[in-house]
Specification:
Helices cover about 0% and strands about 35% of the residues. By secondary structure, it is an all-beta fold. The protein folds into 3 domains: about 55 residues, no CATH class; about 55 residues, no CATH class; about 55 residues, no CATH class. The chain contains no helices and 17 strands. A hairpin with a 4-residue loop joins strand 3 and strand 4. Pfam families: EB.
Length: about 190
């Protein structure tokens, strides 16, 4: 006979799926989530990809980071294989790269089916070491080309300022800044 709420499975008393047996209280205790103090892996929620390291529930792999939005350890920037955006850490504004971006290097070369920052026209982001942030517009500070809107504005980082890439110039058109290829023979 098992103590309540334990169940008997193969002549053994076990706690529920997200519980562990605590000897001190002789009862089933809810398993812990990220950041809580623990003594063993069995005390942490394995269904959330957690293990006990240095007496704290943490993600079970360096490929994963804790998502407070999803309450789960999810794939982080440029780590592991993904097939859906939901497998990537949304707290870090990551997406699952479903197509291959040529020459992105934002900062690491983008790969298909790996969590990455979105880098498309009018939505250019790059990895700052913690999360994906908006790429800088023309005239803003930068340290690398990927800090600038290389797709939307055709800018590069030159002397720590986002400037027009070679063969492009800025044309002010009301509020919008447009980069135009000065070698294009078409008239605007």
């Amino acid at each position: 006979m098992c103590l309540d709420p334990m169940t008997c499975v193969a002549n053994k008393c076990i706690c529920g799926e997200n519980e562990y047996f605590q000897n001190i209280t002789s009862s089933c205790i809810p398993k812990l989530i990220y950041g809580f103090s623990c003594n063993s892996d069995s005390e942490c929620r394995s269904d959330l990809n957690l293990v006990c390291v240095n007496n704290q529930c943490v993600c079970n792999s360096l490929d994963r980071t804790w998502s407070y939005l999803s309450n789960n350890c999810l794939l982080t920037y440029s780590k592991g294989h993904c097939s859906l955006d939901s497998e990537c850490n949304t707290d870090q504004k990551l997406i699952c790269q479903s197509y291959s971006i040529q020459n992105c290097s934002c900062p690491q070369l983008s790969q298909q089916w790996v969590c990455d920052c979105n880098r498309t026209i009018d939505n250019e982001k790059y990895w700052n070491g913690k999360e994906c942030i908006e790429a800088n517009t023309f005239g803003r500070n930068c340290t690398e080309n990927y800090d600038c809107q290389t797709i939307t504005e055709n800018t590069i980082c030159d002397q720590n300022i986002c400037k027009c890439a070679d063969s492009f110039k800025i044309i002010l058109n009301e509020i919008m800044i447009i980069s135009v290829n000065i070698f294009d023979k078409k008239k605007i």
